[in-house]
Automatic annotation (TrEMBL):
One of its GO terms (molecular function) is oxidoreductase activity, acting on paired donors, with incorporation or reduction of molecular oxygen. This is Obtusifoliol 14-alpha demethylase. It comes from the Eukaryota. The keyword DNA repair does not apply. Keywords: Heme, Iron, Membrane, Metal-binding, Monooxygenase, Oxidoreductase, Transmembrane, Transmembrane helix. PANTHER family: 24-HYDROXYCHOLESTEROL 7-ALPHA-HYDROXYLASE, CYTOCHROME P450 FAMILY 7. It comes from Aegilops tauschii subsp. strangulata.
Length: 379
């Protein structure tokens, strides 16, 4: 729910700031006409313009430890081992392309990203023997995350039924793999993320269970690709992987806006942070609608102009995406290979963004004509 601005509470008064007023109507029913007529992106923008910048509406300790497990699997020492696997997967994939041709780049990259993830994260068992089935179920999981899912996660619609079946089957697949590895490798198995999670231990000493798992190009070279990194970062600013971040207020707290207004956020409310707006705030980003990767370069650093959370494509705080470094590395492996080896030209209209899903992406196809570059002998 969105909040209208209230005057700042005087320092001399003992009263706490008032809670933000609620938008009229039930959370979904109240905005349903506008949602259907204008679409979710315009509804968010209109609400922000009208009501301001403050919005609200396993147990925590265990979840925090599980975040630590994932964090350990994404540390530089592990990422170094993933880099070689990524390069191998990418080179093998694009070796199957011809000297020239036309492809749906969106479909190609979706397939390749799943291949890379299966090799680095899911293990050789999935990559070699079960990739097709696992990839299908992952697509069904993703397709089951609709805007309606936020309000009605168990609504009996076909997408939710496929999602639930896929989740159950993936649970069976990875439980079997984990059990097999524990029996076959009592002292440690393959060097991938799944094994890292299997080997993790809670603070009380107990192990994770099966149901909890679900040219020279290496790590150092990838870390030096500053220009490509900034390009990817700018794409994510303009096209964030989610429309908003939602957080539950476990206790009441006070927030102060840039204009100096204060609000008391009551315990139990949900705080919504719309990335589609925050990534384009004009007081943080100069000419925010323009694609300008160098805004993150030396001497500018616009992503820090508004504080620690000026840039939140991967979230922030203790709930920040633990896979951020992995994602950047994967994208740089793929695009550095494409840019070095292919000339590419887009032959279909630039795709619009599909805002009707939880994780927005290109709508329709992205057809690209490619031809292999003639590499010099020195290269």
């Amino acid at each position: 729910m969105m909040a209208r601005r209230r005057p700042t509470v005087s320092q001399t008064t003992k009263r706490s700031p008032s809670p933000p007023p609620m938008a009229p109507g039930a959370p979904l029913v109240g905005i349903l006409p506008a949602l259907l007529a204008k679409g979710p992106l315009q509804v968010i923008r209109n609400a922000h313009t009208e009501m301001g910048s403050v919005a609200f509406d396993v147990d925590f300790a265990t979840r925090r430890e599980q975040f630590r497990f994932f964090g350990d699997a994404m540390k530089p020492a592990k990422l170094r081992t993933y880099a070689g696997l990524m390069v191998r997967e990418v080179e093998e994939y694009f070796a199957r392309w011809g000297q020239s041709g036309t492809v749906d780049l969106k479909q190609e990259l979706e397939h390749l990203v799943t291949l890379v993830a299966s090799r680095c994260l899911f293990g050789e068992e999935v990559r070699a023997k079960m990739f097709g089935e696992v990839a299908t179920h992952l697509r069904e999981l993703n397709d089951g995350m609709r805007l309606v899912t936020i309000m009605f996660p168990h609504l009996p619609i076909p997408a939710h039924r496929r999602r639930d079946r896929a989740r159950a089957r993936l649970g069976e697949i990875f439980s079997d793999i984990v059990s097999s590895r524990k029996a076959s490798y009592p002292d440690g198995g393959p060097d991938d993320m799944l094994q890292c999670l299997i080997d993790s231990r809670y603070k009380d000493g107990r192990a994770t269970t099966e149901t909890e798992h679900g040219d020279r190009m290496d790590y150092e070279v990838l870390q030096e690709m500053d220009t490509l990194h900034r390009c990817v970062k700018e794409v994510l600013r303009l096209h964030p992987p989610a429309m908003m971040l939602l957080r539950h207020a476990r206790r009441s707290f006070t927030v102060r806006t840039r204009e100096g207004d204060e609000y008391e956020i009551p315990e139990g409310r949900t705080v919504a942070s719309p990335l589609v707006l925050h990534n384009c705030l004009p007081h943080v980003y100069r000419d925010p609608e323009r694609y300008e990767p160098n805004r993150f370069g030396p001497g500018r650093g616009e992503d820090g102009a508004g504080g620690a959370f000026s840039y939140t494509a991967f979230g922030g705080g203790r709930h920040a995406c633990v896979g951020e470094a992995f994602a950047y590395m994967q994208i740089k492996v793929i695009w550095s290979h494409l840019l070095r080896n292919f000339e590419m030209e887009m032959v279909s209209p630039f795709p619009e963004t599909d805002w009707n899903v939880v994780m927005p992406g290109p709508k329709g196809k992205a057809m690209v004509r490619y031809s292999r570059k003639r590499m010099s002998a020195a290269a």
